[in-house]
Amino acid sequence: MLAPGMRLPSRAELEELTIRAGDIALRHFRKVEAERKPDRSVVTQADREVEAFLAAEMRERMPDAGIIGEEGAAHEGVGPYRVVIDPIDGTSAFVAGLPTWCVCAGILRDGEMVAGATYMPCTRDVYSAADGDGWWNGRELTRLAPVTHERERFLVADSEIHLRRRLTYRGKVRSFGSAAYHVVLVARGAAEAALLGRPHVWDLAAPGAVLAAVGGRYEFLDGGVVDLASMLDGARAPRDVVAGTPETLETLRAGRV
């Protein structure tokens, strides 16, 4: 239940907010200096401005909801809802001038991914979900079908997978530098699955709402469903995470690929 006076933003509102946030980021694109955070990850002024904008807008719409953002936006809130913000998912790609970065805003209810928007400003692609339905550029996505071998097959993976794992997958492996983009590629049926490394909750919440709407989910690579509620302290996932349908992930684990 929503608290009196608080409403869940519509899918259209979430899309509009991430598009406006993406326009803020685009003003900095290819002309911004990167900084290193204490954990050695990259941050820019664009990250901070986008997060501040989204946090303020979502606080106005959902004043009782908690807020957690990658760059420090935080509001404890009351009740079951948490707004999770990744201002620029793929900051290294952003700094390198590559187009494969996203702006993400997701909503969790008791850890369940109930709504979100993931926007790619350079390509104007927007992925969103609410009320159990997933959308891509205004087109409703259908539930993911079993993978066939009639089309070119590929996985998407984090850029350091080769340092940790020996892959025996017989299709292609691609890496675009954004966990959120990798997840929505799975959700729209382009990629079979995504190997995400050990992401944070802000990498997973918004695109995960789209993934869940089409029958996918997050699991640990060695088995077990990922509980985003356990990651709201901002820590990385304790083990490698994969995204896909339960059937596809089982097949990949078994090596029947």
Notes on the protein architecture:
The chain is of the alpha+beta class and about 260 residues long. The protein folds into 2 domains: about 130 residues, Fructose-1,6-Bisphosphatase, Chain A, domain 1 (2-Layer Sandwich), CATH 3.30.540; about 100 residues, D-Maltodextrin-Binding Protein, domain 2. The protein is about 30% helix and about 25% strand. It has 7 helices and 15 strands. The protein has an 8-stranded mixed beta sheet, sandwiched between helices. A 5-stranded mixed beta sheet has the order 12-11-13-15-14. The longest helix has 17 residues. The mean pLDDT is about 95.
- The CATH class designation of the largest domain is Alpha Beta
Query: How would a textbook summarize the main sheet?
Result: 8 strands, mixed
The general outline is globular
Run of helices and strands: HEEHEEEHEEEEEEHEHEHEEH
Radius of gyration: 17 Å
CATH topology grouping of the largest domain: Fructose-1,6-Bisphosphatase, Chain A, domain 1
Question: Into how many domains do the coordinates divide?
Answer: 2
Q: Provide the CATH architecture of the largest domain.
A: 2-Layer Sandwich
Strand content: 25-35%
Mean pLDDT: 93
Runs in which pLDDT lies below 50 for 5 or more consecutive residues are none
Q: What percent of residues adopt helix (DSSP H or I)?
A: 25-40%
What is the spatial order of strands in the main beta sheet? 4-3-5-6-7-8-9-10
Q: Distance between the terminal alpha carbons, to the nearest Å?
A: 43 Å
Number of strands: 15
Q: What's the name of the CATH homologous superfamily of the largest domain? A: Fructose-1,6-Bisphosphatase, subunit A, domain 1
Structural class: alpha+beta
| Contiguous helical run count | 7
